[in-house]
Amino acid sequence: MSAIATEDQDMFCEKAVALIVDLCLDDSPLLDPGTCQDFLVLLTNENPNISNA
Prior knowledge:
This protein is an all-alpha fold.
């Protein structure tokens, strides 16, 4: 994969994460509170172990 494609994917992921965080912090009815809590915990965890999810 080229560096440009990887950079584009990174930007897309950063925007997606920012959108989810904004929705969670605004208590949006579009997202389940439990899902928001799990997402924010994963986001703040320095060493997430996704295999345990």
